[in-house]
Every structure is written in structure tokens, then in C-alpha cells.
Specification:
The complex is a heterodimer of chains A (294) and B (238). Chain A is mainly alpha-helical and 294 residues long. In chain A, 72% of the residues lie in helices and 1% in strands. Chain A is built from eleven helices and two strands. Chain A is flat and about 80 Å long. Chain B folds into two domains: 123 residues, 3-Layer(aba) Sandwich (D-Maltodextrin-Binding Protein, domain 2); 81 residues, D-Maltodextrin-Binding Protein, domain 2 (3-Layer(aba) Sandwich). In chain B, the strands form three sheets. Chain B has a five-stranded mixed sheet with strand order 5-1-6-13-7. The chains are: A mainly alpha (294), B alpha/beta (238).
């Protein structure tokens, strides 16, 4: 990157470090921070959506829908994250390919499962074998996002289910006394008021979600953990211009600092949000705000 | 007219792209000199050079992907990539699950790397990477074995005293011993397993034939031996 980096062997101290930290391989590490942020930016709203509909389903009046909502929450909450992750990504991938195979290659007579191999016709491959590498990476990433959303959606559903029940019954009764239908009372009275009850649980979930992002590494996405491990490993001078010993500890320490800073910033932001949402609410938080102002 | 020519050119390009099959080459990227990630973040090493040449001869377009060693066979079988080219020795156990091409190296002796020349091999603790021929061999001998997911961790275990020695391909351990004064290669070596070949799905016989032909042609004109010498991958083919 810098001109003085052309001969790394002659460098020492800070100049060596500045060259070392700007290799193309290190750029990949910096980009992977973006991967983590992107994962959070997509997963958080999607799992909130899953959570909302999960909660709404779990308290629906229509019985099968209620069963569905409750089963979703109970199943996902009861299974270890890692087991679910490892299962889902393979199962989802094979399900997609199996479906595409049935639709796209009706003339195919050979069995899909041949011993150990899972064989579908070339047109049913997802993504296609001829697709460039970034398509494969994007596909793997979206599978990961979807799995994250399902897992965290279930936890969010449980939080919101509780939050909906925490809205004082009197509020709903008043709405009904004004002649609102069930649907109107739900959307106009319950939903706006439930957030203040949901937020402590949801902010906790957000913290757990941030901390769960290294699971991407398990799913084969080249995230910060992958690059930290790869860059930190011992490098001998035959295979790199920047030989060094086992520096994995320092790279992982960097990751710790990153995550700690990230969760701290989130905490400050969520605290502010809580203060705003409590304003004018019939909760202890809202009450103390009212008293302080009076 | 101009537009027509562009369209024709685009069509021709599409046609030529379709004819060259894309093959995804799966490797570990953590086992120099066989395969590793270089400073530019690209797969490099003996197998990169070999694989690119094989693909050229077999008229395939090849794309390199990395995958952890412990899941490298399952991910081949489920179709995430089409070949394994990761210093994988041909063994009967692996051959039951996947197929191998012709071997592109002669059997490579496994060496021990330890903190001192008089390390206790028989009574001590040996480190090896999970799922390697070395790990299986140590277990068979009844020696205490600690397994690690990556080659890097096996060497780290010796450095911090968790294991008395690490058993791995001598070609991998050599460069590490050469640069670290604290580590030495023991003189004794063991011959485990056959040579190294590319792993291919059992249902992919056509691809296997293509690579076999390419490997044969590289053996015949001496270019394979040249690569073996260049990357110091043990003995050359006679």
C-alpha cells in the first residue's frame, strides 16, 4: 500500500508494523468487520419481525395458529444454538436443492442420495456450480442470516409475548368500551404500549446477538474470527514477507476490545431509548420521570 | 450494425464460457508449503500451482475455496465444492467415503517436532491434527494423543509444553523448525499412508478421469517433479 513497503525485510519497528497491517490479507480482516455489522443490520430487524409475528401467533384466538406460535417459541428456545445452526444450514441447503431438482429436472431417474453423496442435477445446484465465488459467499451468508433470524426471532417472540401481556388489561378494556374491534385495540392500544415492557428483554437479546456473531465462523463464513486466527498463526519467512510467531492471542485480544466497545455503545444507546419510551407511561420508570419533572 | 456485433460478441463469449466447466477446488489453506493463504489473502503453495496447471491441462475453469480440515470431506460430499486438494493422503478409510485421483506425490515420511532432541515419544504425549493419518497412527500405537483442529495448534501445543512432540508431514514441520531455535526435528521418521491424491465425489467419475489424465501428462513431461522440487515436497517421481 505504501511505497516504502516494497522491501519488508529492511523495515523495522513502526514502519514494519504499518506495512504489515496494510497487507491485502489484513484488508480482508477489516472488511470482515463489515460482514459482522451487515449481519447485525439485517438480522436484528428480521428477527424482530419474526418475533412480533411469533408473539402475535402465540396469543391468537385461532387455535392452530396459537399452536404454531407456541411450538415455534418452545422448539427453538429449547435447542442449543450451535446444534440448530449446524443442522439448519445443511438441511436448508439440501431442501432448497431438492425442491429445485424436483422442479427443474423432472426427467432425472437416478436417486438423489447415492451412498454418502447428495447428488442433484447441475441446474438444481444452489448456487449454480458455474456461479462466481461471491455468489457462493452471498448465498452462504444469507443462509446464516436466515438461521440467526429464526433463532433470535423465537427469543424475541417470547419477550414480546410477555410484553403484550404486561400491557395493563384496563387499557384494552377502555379501548373496547370505546367500541374498538379486537384488531383495532391490538394495533392502536396494545402495540404502541408494549415496547416499553419489551425493551429490557430485547436489549438483552441484542447484546446476546452481538456476542453470537462469531458463530458465523462455524457456518464457514470468513468472518473476523476466521481472519484473526489465520493472520495470527505462525508465519515462516518462506511463505510470507512478514514472518512472525504465534500472535493469535493479540488478534483475539483485538476482537475482545472490539466486542466490548460495541456492546458498551449499544448499552448507552439503549438506555437513552428506554428513557424516551418510558415517557408518560404508567410504569415505575415513567412515574419517576413525571415526579422528577414536577 | 455496431450493436449487432456487440450482441454477437457477447453471445460468443457466453458460448465459450459455457463450454469451459467451472470446478471448485476445496483446500485447507493452513498447511504450508502444500497450501496456505499468502499476504494477498489468496490461496498459494504447491497445490495451488499444481491445481492451476492441472485445470489448464484438463481445460477446466477452477475456483479456489478454503474449508476447515475437519469438515472438508462432508462438504465435498454435500457438493459445496468439487475436489479436495489439500495434502490428503490416500487411505482405505477415506476411500470408502470419497474417491481419489492418481497420486501426485510419493508417500511423505511423517516427522516429529519437539522442544529437545531427547523428547520421549513412546511414553510422552503426542499432538496431531484431527482426522489426519498421523492422528490415527498415534492412536493405534497406544501412545497418548492430543488432537487439534488446525496444524497451527498442534505446534503451539509443543511450544507451551502441553505435548512432548507433534507428529505431522515432515514437509510441513521442516520450515517451522528451520526458523524457530527452540524447536527441533527428531531424527526418527515414520512412514504412514500412501501418497497424496485429489479427493473427488464417488459419483463424479468423469471428473476423476479428467484429472487422472492431467496428472499423468504432468508426470510424463517432468513438470510435476519440477513443482515438487520447487516447493520442497519430498521425493520426486522416478
Amino acid at each position: 500500500m505504501f511505497e516504502f513497503c516494497s522491501n519488508p525485510d529492511a523495515l523495522s519497528g513502526l514502519t514494519w508494523l504499518s506495512c504489515y497491517l496494510t497487507t491485502t490479507k489484513h484488508t480482508a480482516l477489516y472488511v470482515s468487520f463489515g460482514t459482522v455489522l451487515l449481519l447485525l443490520a439485517i438480522t436484528a430487524p428480521v428477527s424482530l419481525l419474526f418475533g412480533f409475528f411469533g408473539a402475535a401467533a402465540a396469543r391468537a384466538r385461532f387455535l392452530p395458529l396459537r399452536w404454531f406460535g407456541k411450538a415455534y417459541i418452545a422448539l427453538v428456545r429449547g435447542i442449543p444454538d450451535i446444534a440448530l445452526f449446524l443442522f439448519f444450514v445443511i438441511a436448508l441447503d439440501q431442501a432448497v436443492e431438492w425442491t429445485r431438482h424436483k422442479i427443474l429436472c423432472p426427467g432425472w431417474t437416478e436417486p438423489i442420495r447415492q451412498g454418502n453423496d447428495f447428488v442433484v442435477c447441475a441446474a438444481a445446484k444452489m448456487p449454480l456450480g458455474t456461479a462466481p465465488q461471491w455468489v457462493h459467499e452471498a448465498y452462504g451468508f444469507s443462509l446464516a442470516v436466515f438461521t440467526f433470524a429464526i433463532v433470535f426471532g423465537a427469543f424475541a417472540a417470547n419477550v414480546m409475548f410477555g410484553a403484550m401481556r404486561a400491557v395493563p388489561r384496563a387499557q384494552i378494556e377502555t379501548a373496547e368500551a370505546y367500541g374498538m374491534s379486537h384488531r383495532q385495540a391490538f394495533w392502536r392500544v396494545m402495540v404502541p404500549q408494549m415496547w416499553v415492557y419489551a425493551l429490557p428483554g430485547l436489549s438483552n437479546l441484542w447484546m446476546i446477538l452481538i456476542k453470537a456473531t462469531p458463530l458465523l465462523f462455524l457456518l464457514g463464513v470468513e468472518d473476523i474470527v476466521y481472519w484473526a486466527r489465520e493472520l495470527g498463526g505462525t508465519k515462516t519467512s518462506r511463505f510470507t514477507s512478514y514472518p512472525h510467531g504465534d500472535w493469535r492471542m493479540w488478534y483475539f485480544l483485538g476482537l475482545l476490545v472490539f466486542y466490548l466497545m460495541f456492546t458498551r455503545v449499544s448499552e448507552i444507546f439503549l438506555e437513552r431509548l428506554m428513557r424516551r419510551l418510558s415517557h408518560g407511561q404508567a410504569t415505575t420508570g415513567g412515574e419517576s420521570q413525571r415526579k422528577a419533572a414536577a | 450494425m455496431n450493436k449487432l456485433m456487440i450482441t454477437a460478441a457477447a453471445l460468443a463469449m457466453c458460448a465459450s464460457m459455457a463450454s469451459a466447466e467451472t470446478i471448485r477446488m476445496g483446500t485447507e489453506g493452513a498447511y504450508p508449503p502444500w497450501n496456505f493463504i499468502n499476504d494477498d489473502g489468496e490461496v498459494d503453495g504447491f497445490e495451488r500451482a499444481l491445481g492451476d496447471e492441472l485445470c489448464k491441462r484438463a481445460e477446466l475453469t477452477c475456483e479456489w475455496v478454503t474449508n476447515d480440515w475437519d469438515s472438508i470431506i462432508p462438504n465435498l460430499v454435500s457438493g459445496n465444492y468439487d475436489t479436495i486438494i489439500a495434502g490428503m493422503s490416500v487411505t482405505a478409510e477415506r476411500d470408502e467415503v470419497i474417491d481419489f485421483t492418481d497420486q501426485y506425490t510419493l508417500p511423505d515420511p511423517s516427522g516429529y517436532l519437539a522442544l529437545s532432541k531427547d523428547a520421549d515419544i513412546k511414553g510422552g504425549v503426542l499432538a496431531a491434527q484431527t482426522g489426519t493419518i498421523q492422528a490415527a497412527w498415534v492412536a493405534e500405537q497406544g501412545i497418548t494423543l492430543v488432537e487439534f483442529a488446525t496444524p497451527e495448534e498442534t505446534v503451539a501445543a509443543v511450544r507451551n509444553g502441553e505435548a512432548d512432540a507433534v507428529l505431522a508431514d515432515a514437509t510441513y514441520l521442516g520450515p517451522i523448525a528451520a526458523e524457530d531455535d527452540a524447536l527441533v526435528m527428531l531424527e526418527q521418521e515414520v512412514m504412514i499412508g500412501g501418497g497424496v491424491g485429489m479427493g473427488i465425489r464417488e459419483s463424479d467419475t468423469e471428473l476423476k478421469e479428467k484429472f487422472n489424465k492431467a496428472i499423468q501428462s504432468m508426470k510424463a513431461d517432468g513438470s510435476l517433479n519440477k513443482l515438487i522440487v520447487e516447493w520442497e515436497i519430498g521425493e520426486t517421481f522416478p
